[in-house]
Amino acid sequence: MIAVTLHVAAAGIALALLLNLWRLLRGPALGDRIVALDTMVINAIALIVLIGMIGGSDTYFEAALLLAMVGFVSTIAFCKFILRGDIVE
Amino acid sequence: MTSVADIVVIVLLLLGAGFAVIGSWGLVRLPSTMERLHGPTKATTLGLGALLVASVIHSHARLGVWTAHELLISLFLFITAPISANMIAKVHLHRARVGTAGEPEGIAGPPPRPSGDGDWATFEAPKRDTPASTANS
After folding, report:
1. How does pLDDT run across B63-80, given as a tens digit for each residue?
2. A59: distance to nearest CA of chain B, Å?
């Protein structure tokens, strides 16, 4: 029962990733693309956690934690670059 | 056999995946950029929080130990999501002000200006004589 639910949830996250990809390609404003990328990172973290639950392995959580940190830093760097034309001033 | 923990895990998994889909659907469906910020920053973050709690209970039911590093991820995400949303809103306000936003505003219109003669702080240059300033020369 749990295995079926895990796969259903993974399918839902995959659908969410596809919706984000559509917004990332479509735009139209640059802010939309940044939001779409940020959401894709969050959904990728969710997918990694689900795969870790399906496979029963513990190592996936480190990957999810690292992706959470790198995703946040990349979003902030992207915003800073657009606002200021520079990342570290 | 499904135990109580299994039922809780199933409910949390469906809730988390549902909120993730709702957030992404809002990102596709809502009419303007400032409104599109709402879906991902709140619904998707809540969905991931539910998934991580489900993972904690699942690993407890499977291994018999309580683990906390999933909660570490969700704590980190709950701290950083408002910051990135704020930065993205700043980017959009700034680009709308200089006229390169590339899209007319939606039904809600642009956000109102703050009271007084101020404006939203999106492009504040580093001030002279502040510690991090490189504008002194």
Report:
1. 777 878 888 888 998 899
2. 11
